[in-house]
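Data card: per-record layout.
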Amino acid sequence: MTRAYELMGRPVITIDEGAIVGQTAGVIIDTASTDVAALIVNVINRFAPPRAVPYALVQGIGDDAVIIENASSLADFGALPEILDMGRPDSEIRGVRAITRTGRLLGTVADLMIDLDTGKVIAYEIQSGVDTAILVRAEQVITVGKQALITTAEACAHTEE
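The structure for this 161-residue chain is written out next.
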C-alpha cells in the first residue's frame, strides 16, 4: 500500500526509448469504483500542460520511477474527457471533510492509500486531530463528494475506543 502523495515527483520513463518524459503530479480517482483512473504527469516541457496516463497503460510503479510503454501513452486531458467526468484528482480529495452518514465529523482527508498492483484505493487517511489519524477502508466510504467524504457509521467505531 502506498500513499498517493508519495507518488508525486517520480520520474515517468518510457520502455521503448528509456527516456524520462515527465514526473508524476498526482492521481485521478474514479469516485464510483475507487480505482485509480490515471496518473497526472507534468511533462518535461515546463510550458506544456499536464498530461494523463490511463492507469491501464502504466507498465510498472516502483520506489524510484513510473514505467510506461512509450510517450504516446501520455494524453492531453482534452482527449480523455471521460477521465475527468468520472474522477477527481487526489489534490481535490485531500482536505475535504470526512463525515459519517449519521452526521459525525471524523476529520479531513489527509491522503489516499493505493494498492499499486491493482490500482485500487484501499483506504483513506483521515486527520482527526493534530497528532491523530485514522484509516477508513474504501468499502466504508459511501460518497467521495466535492465538499465531503461520506462514510458508514461503522467507520468511526474504532475511534471511540
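Known properties of this structure: The domain at 91-159 is CATH 2.30.30.240 (SH3 type barrels.). The chain has a mean pLDDT of 89.

See the next section for split statistics.
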